[in-house]
Amino acid sequence: MMIRYLQPIRELENLRRQMDLVFDELSAQTAQTNDTSTAWVPAVELIDTGDNLVFYAQLPGVAAKNLDIQVTRDAVAIAGERQRQHQSENANYLHSEFRYGKFQRVVNLPVAVQNDKVQADFRDGILTLTLPKVEEVRNRVVKINLGESTADAEKSIDTTAQTVNSQN
What we know:
Residues 35-147 form the SHSP domain. The chain has 168 residues and is α+β, with helices and mostly antiparallel strands.
């Protein structure tokens, strides 16, 4: 009779490896047959600098000619396509986590912007849009002259102080 020792950790590790292989094969098959599974969405960042909103989008590997950027008063829409750089019919991809294909992203803006005065810059895979705010929503500093109302406020404070002292 042969004695066999139970090793649950090793068996769980073998099961995990087998499940990883199954999911890798499934994802590779669906990536080849279904273009929507490879769709991706670029990361964006929106910063308020006072008079402007600055919009950044990460678009590595996307050519400027493959971009469509539309700006309305209250939204930014970017669409485009990232294509494989090494397209070869006999290429045998062993592993790839890159996302290729068409993308579309719409970002609603928190305030209205002057869409006819947008400045764009596309450098090193980063799209930068400077979106000037409309005049009505810009932060403005207004000096308020209190004049006589300040003197009235001081009189009411003095009256309150006298009332407190008379109670003591």
